[in-house]
Amino acid sequence: xxxxxxxxxxxxxxxxxxxxxxxxxxxxxxxxxxxxxxxxxxxxxxxxxxxxxxxxxxxxxxxxxxxxxxxxxxxxxxxxxxxxxxxxxxxxxxxxxxxxxxxxxxxxxxxxxxxxxxxxxxxxxxxxxxxxxxxxxxxxxxxxxxxxxxxxxxxxxxxxxxxxxxxxxxxxxxxxxxxxxxxxxxxxxxxxxxxxxxxxxxxxxxxxxxxxxxxxxxxxxxxxxxxxxxxxxxxxxxxxxxxxxxxxxxxxxxxxxxxxxxxxxxxxxx
Length: 270
Fold this sequence. Notes:
This protein is mainly alpha-helical. It folds into two domains: 9-191, no CATH class; 205-266, no CATH class. The chain is 70% helix and 1% strand. The chain is built from ten helices and two strands, in the order αααααααββααα. The termini are far apart. One of its GO terms (cellular component) is plasma membrane.
């Protein structure tokens, strides 16, 4: 940490410790957002100690939707804190850029975390532990815990430290001109692309209702797919987004969608 930094090594160590509780609070509307904000809240209070209004905006910004692999969240903490610090110091960073960077990072890091920790490292460490446990040796579970957590804790800690260092140096390099604006626009575009892919692949509205008879019979699904593939999932997603923006709670939207699904199934619509 340089002398110009407001955030110290002690602050980052505190973020590292608090990050273990990031998933203590989790909901379907904003996923890990509350835990994310709670993790960095003491650091935000330090950054904005002379700016109550700035702290309010920072808290609201860090309560936005967030979801990634918990072990891979620390690099995002580091980068976003570096950007918050630069904004406090008058750098060419704004709140929209901070939010966009978080959105752009959380998807790829979630994929890396899932594939590495759950599908590669966990089976390997478990296999070593099981082989050592044969015959009743206590070394099996101990070896599993030690090996797995070397990578777990190392990824968390060094991800936070280097995320913060990378975030600071990266911002210094791109400051000036319209680079930050283009970066913000680019990350926003990536986020929208991810949302489009998720809508097409994860939202399913199979309209099996048949229109016509005999060889001329067509399902509603086929008709709408002929106009535009996955048109109904897109319209449903946009409709949900619109009613939530108008103030309806996500819980109410969830029950409405469940009710429509049951009703549609009963009348043979899907």
